[in-house]
């Protein structure tokens, strides 16, 4: 009896010590993770805030300490960047191209992903492998073949469009953006559609809903988190692109990224850094606004559409 009592006492004393050790290690790991996240956030937040304040500085203020706050709000930097540096025109081109590319990619990717996820048909495996293979193709590596194809197409239509139709056309640039982002968009939405239980689909079929109604009224609302995520990634890809837009667009139809590079080269030579940082802020603001709009959808649960 005494040996059994001693053994139980040792076991009861060992378990709380082991639990305390696990709790302490979990607390230490969580603290380290929070410190790493804070440092990572500061490395992003501090440069953004610095660029924002620098955009309001006068030209003479850049000769002092770079960490001083602006003496006033020098809005003329934004006016000069938007008007004199033609960033306003480039900005409008980028907004049009990005919006059109997002619409085209969703119009094509949503039905394709739904069919790939919910139906079986001949050649599905081959098509699925082709879509997955497209994820590993960097569009920057094929921009030259795309450009040559568009140039050859313009040669065929030279008598109808002597100034060209495919090259230096914002609509064609949006189509190229949408086409090159389809593998990622379809792959992301397909996995999300495949994870939705069949109970929603069967219940809608019993109520007499068509496949089109099921797709648009049930699956699309339920897939809003995945749709929002794909829109966010595609928006960043379209808006921040430089190589494709520089290759396919020339003259006044340049996008904001190409225009910003030209502004950087010009203002560095003129040492007018206030106008340069104002151009950077103009480029960053749409990204922040779009993320603020989309981030609420990213947190929605996948069953919201089914409950509706």
Automatic annotation (TrEMBL):
<keyword id="KW-0472">Membrane</keyword>
<keyword id="KW-1133">Transmembrane helix</keyword>
<dbReference type="InterPro" id="IPR000515">
    <property type="entry name" value="MetI-like"/>
</dbReference>
<keyword id="KW-1003">Cell membrane</keyword>
<keyword id="KW-0812">Transmembrane</keyword>
<feature type="transmembrane region" description="Helical">
    <location>
        <begin position="129"/>
        <end position="151"/>
    </location>
</feature>
<feature type="transmembrane region" description="Helical">
    <location>
        <begin position="35"/>
        <end position="56"/>
    </location>
</feature>
<feature type="transmembrane region" description="Helical">
    <location>
        <begin position="95"/>
        <end position="117"/>
    </location>
</feature>
<feature type="transmembrane region" description="Helical">
    <location>
        <begin position="218"/>
        <end position="239"/>
    </location>
</feature>
<dbReference type="InterPro" id="IPR035906">
    <property type="entry name" value="MetI-like_sf"/>
</dbReference>
<feature type="transmembrane region" description="Helical">
    <location>
        <begin position="276"/>
        <end position="294"/>
    </location>
</feature>
<comment type="similarity">
    <text>Belongs to the binding-protein-dependent transport system permease family.</text>
</comment>
<feature type="transmembrane region" description="Helical">
    <location>
        <begin position="171"/>
        <end position="189"/>
    </location>
</feature>
<keyword id="KW-0813">Transport</keyword>
<protein>
    <submittedName>
        <fullName>Carbohydrate ABC transporter permease</fullName>
    </submittedName>
</protein>
<feature type="domain" description="ABC transmembrane type-1">
    <location>
        <begin position="91"/>
        <end position="294"/>
    </location>
</feature>
<dbReference type="Pfam" id="PF00528">
    <property type="entry name" value="BPD_transp_1"/>
</dbReference>
<dbReference type="GO" id="GO:0005886">
    <property type="term" value="C:plasma membrane"/>
</dbReference>
<dbReference type="GO" id="GO:0055085">
    <property type="term" value="P:transmembrane transport"/>
</dbReference>
């Amino acid at each position: 009896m005494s040996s059994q009592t001693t053994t139980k006492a040792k076991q009861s004393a060992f378990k709380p010590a082991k639990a305390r050790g696990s709790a302490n290690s979990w607390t230490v790991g969580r603290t380290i993770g929070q410190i790493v996240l804070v440092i990572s956030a500061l490395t992003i937040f501090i440069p953004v805030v610095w660029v924002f304040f620098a955009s309001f500085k006068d030209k003479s203020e850049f000769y002092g300490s770079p960490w001083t706050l602006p003496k006033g709000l020098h809005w003329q930097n934004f006016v000069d960047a938007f008007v004199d540096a033609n960033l306003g025109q480039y900005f409008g081109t980028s907004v049009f191209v990005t919006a059109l590319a997002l619409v085209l990619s969703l119009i094509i990717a949503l039905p394709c992903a739904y069919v790939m996820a919910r139906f079986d048909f001949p050649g599905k495996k081959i098509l699925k492998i082709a879509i997955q293979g497209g994820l590993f193709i960097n569009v920057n590596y094929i921009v030259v073949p795309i450009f040559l194809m568009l140039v050859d197409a313009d040669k065929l239509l030279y008598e109808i469009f002597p100034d060209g139709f495919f090259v230096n056309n914002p609509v064609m640039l949006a189509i190229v953006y949408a086409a090159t982002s389809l593998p990622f968009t379809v792959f992301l939405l397909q996995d999300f559609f495949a994870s939705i239980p069949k109970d929603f689909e069967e219940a809608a079929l019993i109520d007499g809903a068509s496949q089109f109604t099921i797709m648009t009224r049930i699956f699309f609302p339920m897939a809003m988190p995945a749709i929002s995520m794909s829109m966010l990634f595609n928006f960043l890809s379209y808006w921040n692109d430089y190589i494709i837009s520089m290759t396919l667009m020339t003259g006044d139809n340049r996008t904001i990224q190409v225009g910003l590079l030209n502004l950087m080269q010009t203002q560095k030579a003129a040492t007018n850094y206030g106008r340069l940082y104002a151009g950077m802020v103009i480029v960053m603001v749409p990204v922040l606004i779009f993320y603020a709009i989309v981030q609420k959808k990213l947190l929605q649960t996948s069953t919201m559409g089914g409950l509706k």
